């Protein structure tokens, strides 16, 4: 049964349907406000920092800021609300497929003040569309507020990209810190996942992306998977054992990358006086050995797994260990269940600008006992980014379809910089196997023996 509620956001009264006691429009309005506050916080800096390109891998921060507004205008105002374009002349400038990141500083993009005015104007009209839209409309963009979920998640993803840019900038004092729970040690380094089928992907989560659909049965043999992500201490042991200098542990392409890049440790690590140090948002600090390793590429993760006598899990293995509930014979939205992430369950949403210590979230474990599968670091898997059986592109092929193939490896789980709105058991991220500037780590797996299976 539906009734009507109201919510006021920055002078806009949003009237929405309440479904099962939850005001959907109020929830959407709050999410829109939260993500915009985050975007503005990351771009609250001197103009010179915002317009500079800090790496050819990343856009200027001001490009990301205006891009999220342009994306919101395209999908909410034009496609959903039928509103006349506000700034059609800038569409080409903010089309990510027309202009590689390395070329964006040379474009006549909006300056910081103009970008802020533009996205504010778009947002005011977006709230008007939210007020008027029927969330029970059978149109798939409107139904359950999918288009709003689309732009909210898109902006959070760009906020995480902004954080990666801020890390590359080396500028101190731009990122806030926070407290995290203490870690713990455990004697059980691996957990066992019995063989059998499970349901991978989703047909039920209304804001899930096209690449997470459709749900389909996957039958896996039994396997072991690490209880925690690989920590800095364990990774340092790989380095100390000559892991970067021994081609036995590297694939052919990985060894080629190692030689060309001259990498000797995770990105941002240096060694001084027998101690490993890292640069984190402009500050030098000793590497905390009890945190998950981050800023490693797929080739590094794969080499470590080989050195450890293991392998990277497939994304199917990762998802089953993360979210499958064998007793209920169903998938959970998060490892612990369907309740939203809380402070005792996962390190998400820039709660702190770093991963939490290993063992910090025992209450966030999945049904099989694996921990910290959501938050802290994106986890590389062995899988290429490919469509599920029965995949259908929606709402546009450039979100997923054009990336399918054997160029991109899948990452799962989200990082400390990812927002809960853009993280769930079924969420699929992907990137080139050489990428290190992202907040990426990994955990290992191994196949069960015949006796164990």
Give your account of this protein's structure:
The protein has 453 residues and is of the alpha+beta class. It has two domains: 3-169, Four Helix Bundle (Hemerythrin (Met), subunit A) (Up-down Bundle), CATH 1.20.120; 190-232 and 294-447, paralog of FGE (formylglycine-generating enzyme) (Alpha-Beta Complex), CATH 3.90.1580. Helix content is 28%, strand content 16%. It is built from nine helices and 17 strands. The chain has helices at 24-42, 47-51, 61-80, 112-132, 146-169, 232-240, 252-261, 298-307, 315-323, and strands spanning 3-9, 12-19, 22-23, 190-193, 196-200, 216-220, 223-226, 269-272, 275-280, 283-286, 324-325, 330-331, 378-384, 409-412, 429-431, 440-441, 445-447. The strands form six sheets. A four-stranded mixed sheet has the order 15-14-13-16. A hairpin with a 2-residue loop joins strand 8 and strand 9 (275-280). Helix 7 (252-261) packs across helix 8. The protein is globular, with a radius of gyration of 22 Å. Mean pLDDT is 93; it is low at 1-21.
Topology of helices and strands:
Blueprint: E1 3-9, E2 12-19, E3 22-23, H1 24-42, H2 47-51, H3 61-80, H4 112-132, H5 146-169, E4 190-193, E5 196-200, E6 216-220, E7 223-226, H6 232-240, H7 252-261, E8 269-272, E9 275-280, E10 283-286, H8 298-307, H9 315-323, E11 324-325, E12 330-331, E13 378-384, E14 409-412, E15 429-431, E16 440-441, E17 445-447
Parallel strand pairs: 13-16
Antiparallel strand pairs: 1-2, 2-3, 4-7, 5-6, 7-17, 8-9, 9-10, 11-12, 13-14, 14-15
